Amino acid sequence: MERKTIDLDQGWDYMQTGITKLKRILEGLPEPAFDSEQYMMLYTTIYNMCTQKPPHDYSQQLYDKYREAFENYIASTVLPALREKHDEYMLRELVKRWSNHKVMVRWLSRFFYYLDRYFIARRSLPPLNEVGLTCFRDLVYNELHTKVKEAVIALVDKEREGEQIDRALLKNVLDIYVEIGMGQMERYEEDFENFMLQDTSSYYSRKASSWIQEDSCPDYMLKSEECLKKERERVAHYLHSSSEPKLVEKVQHELLVVYANQLLEKEHSGCRALLRDDKVDDLSRMYRLYHKISRGLEPVANIFKQHVTAEGNALVQQAEDTATNQAANTASVQEQVLIRKVIELHDKYMVYVTECFQNHTLFHKALKEAFEIFCNKTVAGSSSAELLATFCDNILKKGGSEKLSDEAIEDTLEKVVKLLAYISDKDLFAEFYRKKLARRLLFDRSANDDHERSILTKLKQQCGGQFTSKMEGMVTDLTLARENQNSFEEYLVNNPAANPGIDLTVTVLTTGFWPSYKSFDINLPSEMVKCVEVFKGFYETKTKHRKLTWIYSLGTCHINGKFDQKPIELIVSTYQAAVLLLFNTTDKLTYSEILGQLNLSHEDLVRLLHSLSCAKYKILLKEPLTKTVSQADSFEFNSKFTDRMRRIKIPLPPVDERKKVVEDVDKDRRYAIDAAIVRIMKSRKVLGHQQLVSECVEQLSRMFKPDIKAIKKRMEDLITRDYLERDKENPNMFRPKAIVVNPAPGDSEIPSLAHLVSLVGSSSSDQSASLVFSKFSKMLARLAAKRLLEIRQVFRQPPSQTSRSFSTALNYHLNSPDNKPDLPWEFSEANKSKVKEILSYYPTNYKQSAVIPLLDLAQQQHGGWLPVSAMNAVANVIEVAPIRVYEVATFYSMFNRAKVGQYHLLVCGTTPCMVRGSRDIESALLDHLGVKRGEVTKDGLFSVGEMECMGCCVNAPMITVADYSNGSEGYTYNYFEDVTPEKVVEIVEKLRKGEKPPRGTQNPKRINCGPEGGNTTLLSEPKPPQFRDLDAC
């Protein structure tokens, strides 16, 4: 039976009844809801009209009438209702009409759903839902959005002024802007957000101009923080979330950026006043407000730096004034007070940095720069390095003015080491500290050995092992000296005839560790000569290869003085004792007689006689009775001397050692500058004057701040000594000058380097190392020339032929086409994110600790080896001198300095693996691949190297395969255990085919690292050892 054809007018009239009913429902008129039968009839009508045969297929006409239905409804009902309302009432009507419109679109789209499924899909027309929303946009939104925008902004401004508004209404209105964009934010941003942001700028600009005049800095910041909080709340309640960063940026700009300088520099309440008055909460608020603004913290950090610098300078000036106005001993106390105040100042502002400023790097940098300014000033002629060393001495010695508990001493030492980081002349501190440490150790003035070792550990962590090596040697020397003294006492007990009759304590020191002291060939009294000979006899029984040099100036003697009233024990130096013992045989001696008998210099003898005759304790009487000693004076033993104490110490007049220390340090600095210049030129080959100076400063600044003039002077000196030469075409360019050493005839039997080191090493314990070096100096020069020639020959080989086992070659670099500093190298985009992740594991001020994982990542990216340009890139990332990275890369065997294959095979060479056949496994690999150790196969796939212990000796022998074939993204590092020569060849062939050989143990009888045949228990019969038969033993 044929379906009856429905005309367009007839069908549309029926549809109009449904549309009219829907309109009445939307307008709130009394109308029953659609039942399922009505809905199905309306849908069926559209279906029938669209599926009739042409020319009765009315799909296109129905599509057009669908649009007309919306347009008619909007024109007749929606627009008139909106036009007659204004402001908030208009917004409410708009929300209502938009809600009704969406309902209408939803229902009509259901009625006309057949069009959506077939007709619209075939013709690629806009879907019904979109047509409905477009009608509202074109007819309603485009006409009213300007008024709506103005009404919304007016309500927002009212709320900013403290009035209550309907936030839900604004949320619904602004949702219209978002929804009308149909997935795009263009309408919201262009028709509302931009205007809202402009209004926000204007509003807060007016507020800021008023507040900055009326309010103090803390009040202004409170208001600003409250405004930012409320703007974020507005976003949460009715604005779109994408507006938050833009809105906050506008508010921050108007309130905080525009008036930043005026706010921070407010006279009585700005940043300086907050720091001065310790307003911690306000400073924290200032950080919270400015840290999210680009470069917003820089002015705050600058003011912080200036404030800390001013406070530090005031402390230094106060100490300077006090030292100028008071006596020398009081001035020394004031200098120690200065260090204590500087430590307190550092503690105070470090709390600010960590708590108020949340450990931000800018403030760490500001604090560091501020302390570097005033911590490197001199006070009453004393450098900060000397003051710090004296402060440490005062804490660590017995009877110091600092009476502290053990915990307080440890804490103070920790802070002293932190202060040392700000001092540029660390080498000067080291020398002063070493001098004072020597006095504490030698004269038994150290309060606690644990504290001495503790500060050395802290200094080692801060400045490196080289900084404390001599000091650690001094402490060790004292321990050995005590053991040596015990042996000497046992020797005297066992050899009564050798006993000198005097209690003798000798401290044997190693020359290289201790400061240099004057040593004179004084004519000792017979009692002392006997003591010296006895100890020499004892020492020769222990060793005959060491020379003893006696430093009498450091000796101490206890002499019993027999005076008329009572005997008194005198504690004097060895020199003073020698003078006093002369009066055992005579009552009176002239200056010339004493000088002739003791063989001392005039300067030293004057000091000795002054201490005994002109100071507090007048053991000798001088004629004439003046306060100075002259060569015409005569001296007599004062038998009537007395004192209320039975033991007195007679000190020598103090000698100012500052000048000598500074001269010694200046001399060492000249050597350091020379070494740095030569090291740089050996590395760079050709370098401009300015770059050479700057690199030299960079290398040396870790220990001291070199003077530019001194560097230039050392450069000229090196030129005259033929270490450097100027470029003939460009005098501002420098080159290292080649030194040619020709082997002398008859040098075929040059000793090995190990033999020479053993000679020098055996003599270093002897005090006459200079004799050995003199004897072997020519031989050493020839050896060096020969060794250098070997190294150059190795580096002239192609990179693939450089054997990694040639360890000396690893510490040199010669440019090659694929390995030179000027080749560009940087981390890939994927690895840059890994670099950030690696750095995030370390504190910002310790990012150099990431050097090993970064070098490993660079090696993975570069196919398994590290060119010098990659090391330079790592140095740039962690902000250190390139030499620091070179040191790590050349020290650890995990970093390859020459090219390796895509599969780098490493054979474990430690004892367990060697016993189990690792040498056979290496030979099998090398023979199979046709290469030597360190070479790469011609196809670039394989290379073989040696590795130290792989940490699984129970599964020896073993190899690892570093797989660089897929770059750093696919890098793998796999262990193969229990291997045999046949098995490693099989592994190589699988890798060559692109297969993945099974990792782990290659022994089928073993599970992981368990024993062959499975685990055993204490209850089972034990298996016999693998390597011997117990029954045969």
Number of strands: 14
Q: What is Rg?
A: 45 Å
CATH class of one domain: Mainly Alpha
Count of individual helical segments: 37
Might you state the CATH topology name of one domain? 5 helical Cullin repeat like
Give the strand order of the largest sheet, numbering strands 1, 2, ... along the chain: 11-10-12-13-14
Percent in strands: 5-15%
Unreliable segments (pLDDT under 50, ≥5 consecutive)?
739-776, 794-810
Cα separation of the termini: 111 Å
List the helices and strands and how they pair.
Blueprint lengths: L7 H19 L9 H16 L7 H25 L3 H25 L1 H11 L4 H33 L6 H14 L5 H29 L2 H21 L5 H15 L2 H5 L6 H6 L3 H11 L7 H28 L2 H29 L4 H14 L9 H13 L9 H15 L5 H17 L6 H15 L1 H30 L31 H17 L13 E7 L4 E7 H8 L6 E3 H8 L3 H12 L6 E4 L10 E4 L9 E3 L8 H27 L2 E2 H12 L7 H13 L3 E3 L6 E4 L16 H12 L4 H28 L32 H12 L10 H11 L6 H11 L3 H10 L11 E6 L2 H5 L2 H12 L12 E6 L10 E6 L8 E6 L3 H12 L7 E2 L32
Parallel strand pairs: 2-6, 10-11, 13-14
Antiparallel strand pairs: 1-2, 3-5, 4-5, 7-9, 8-9, 10-12, 12-13
Helix pairs in contact: 1-2, 1-3, 1-4, 2-5, 3-4, 3-6, 4-6, 4-7, 6-8, 7-8, 8-10, 9-10, 9-13, 14-15, 14-16, 15-16, 15-17, 17-18, 17-19, 18-20, 19-21, 19-26, 20-21, 26-27, 26-28, 29-30, 32-33, 33-34, 36-37
InterPro entries: Cullin (IPR045093), Cullin-like_AB (IPR059120), Cullin_homology (IPR016158), Cullin_homology_sf (IPR036317), Cullin_N (IPR001373), Cullin_neddylation_domain (IPR019559), Cullin_repeat-like_dom_sf (IPR016159), NuoE-like (IPR002023)
GO molecular function: 2 iron, 2 sulfur cluster binding; metal ion binding; oxidoreductase activity; ubiquitin protein ligase binding
Keywords: 2Fe-2S, Iron, Iron-sulfur, Isopeptide bond, Metal-binding, Ubl conjugation, Ubl conjugation pathway
